[in-house]
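Supplementary Methods S3. Complex input for the fe (ii) ion-bound model.
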Amino acid sequence: MQYDYSKNKDEHPEPINADVKGLIPEWLQGTLIRNGPGLFSLGETRYNHWFDGMALLHSFTIKKGEVTYRSKYLQGDTYNSNMQANRIVVSEMGTMAYPDPCKNIFSKVITFLSHTIPDFTDNCANNIIKYGNDYHATSETNYIRKIDPMTLETQEKVDYLKYLPVNIVASHTHYDKEGNSYSMGTCIAEKGKTKYTLFKVPGGSGSDGSPPLKSAEVVCTVPCRSLLTPSYYHSFGMTDNYFVFIEQPLKLDVLKMATAYLRGVNWASCMKFHAEDSTLIHLIDRKTKKEVGIKFYTGAMAVYHQVNAFEDDGHVVFDVICYDDNSLYEMFYLDKLKEQMGADTMYCKPKCKRFVLPLSDMVCCVTGEDLVKLKYTTASAVKEKEGKVLCQGEGLCDGVELPRINYNFNGKKYRYSYMCCVDISPVATKIVKFDAETKQKIEWTGGDCFSSEPVFIPRPDAVDEDDGVVLTCIINAKPVQGGFLLVLDGKSFKEVARACIDVDFHMDMHGYFIPDIKTLPRPPKTARSNTPHISTF
Ligand SMILES: CC1=C(/C=C/C(C)=C/C=C/C(C)=C/C=C/C=C(C)/C=C/C=C(C)/C=C/C2=C(C)C[C@@H](O)CC2(C)C)C(C)(C)CCC1
Ligand SMILES: [Fe+2]
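Predicted complex, serialized as structure tokens:
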């Protein structure tokens, strides 16, 4: 079964009514917005990499058992400039755009000079972030684009650099029960320093009409291991008292980036996985805003998605999807995807691993001691000299990506994650519910179809962690038949309903569910001390 990653997809800005088969629970009301690349060639030009494609937003609005669908290209500056020129004129991570050979020599020189200090793309094709009451399409440059979550209209361009010293910002954000958002960015070589900055955007900020980022506060900064080779990261972990930041040996070479345009290479070629390096794990105390004084590290790994993190009996436990190299990015070059699709070969398989960071007083422990005292994990953290602790992860399961959880359990002890299965080819034909306690998996597969990231929506008043539904957008392998939004029961992982839409969906990355305010989930009635909170995520 093959999916054509380089096919340009049509937008459907007018709402389309779905044909619903089965029964959508009456409490499930709201809009699932999803984001991903949808256009890969324009005129004579084409993008090299799937992540570079122009952002196509789509949404499923669920109301009283009915579903309406719409999709719309993000009309940012990048989109408008490309469309106007009928060619790709703005560079992306994997594609460097060069002047039109028909342009005169003067304008060519200007373009060249302006690219040595480039203005970055606002083609935000990766995720959706909520700051204050505003929703934004995001990638990882300093620009995000505000959107209308109901019509998918593109609104203001927001420049992080106006409010915070961050050149690159991770496209995954965390939210707390008060509606505050937490993000993380890198400030490259400013005043001779490169640092990672965690910042908070207060919930409700921007209600006076100003951009919510105007109220952003720096929570803490972590100095980078080296001035000119900051680590790449795509997400981080958050518990009630800590942030977990993985400084991995997948690094950007800033000097190479500064000369990339002149050398005729893309920016991605300036990102390298250093297999000989270690991975540093930073644990930041949210109260003191400082790192805990223990140097946790593990072997070289590449992580894009953290599943969850929580505190348990003097330890911080966190689960991640990790790789032994940077082959995930390499795999998504469009030429490679074409080759691999037929061959059923796979890049280095992703592994879901659990790491445990002991918070014990290091003075009382002896060198060589495993400081992990939790009975339910084989993860270890061995004390070494000079306050260093070597962590070894426990393999939870293999061949999974795009993890989602019941976000009410973010930062809490949890059991279930919902993920795409990527066993043998670069496209997911199955999704899985994984139980981290029993290690049991329940899979859903629909035969001739490809599934997107599964999003868990808790039932209002739910007590159990898996009481709710899982929504996933299914692409039909035979595009003429259209796709559907699949609604699975969170507990049994069995189909509850599907909303069929006569549209050839695009493969997307991430989504965000906005519940109708009237149906906001309330905290579960439970006696647990770590009572999960209300979230709209
Ligand atoms: C700002 C700036 C720069 C520019 C930075 C730029 C252009 C950054 C762009 C960053 C982007 C677009 C990052 C995107 C990251 C995306 C990630 C990590 C995506 C992961 C996707 C996964 C795991 C996909 C999984 C799958 C999908 C989607 C479909 C399924 O069927 C199969 C499966 C599960 C494999 C410079 C040049 C570095 C200079 C400094 C300053
Ligand atoms: Fe992601």
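The two ends are 33 Å apart (CA to CA). Residues 486 and 498 are 5 Å apart (CA to CA).
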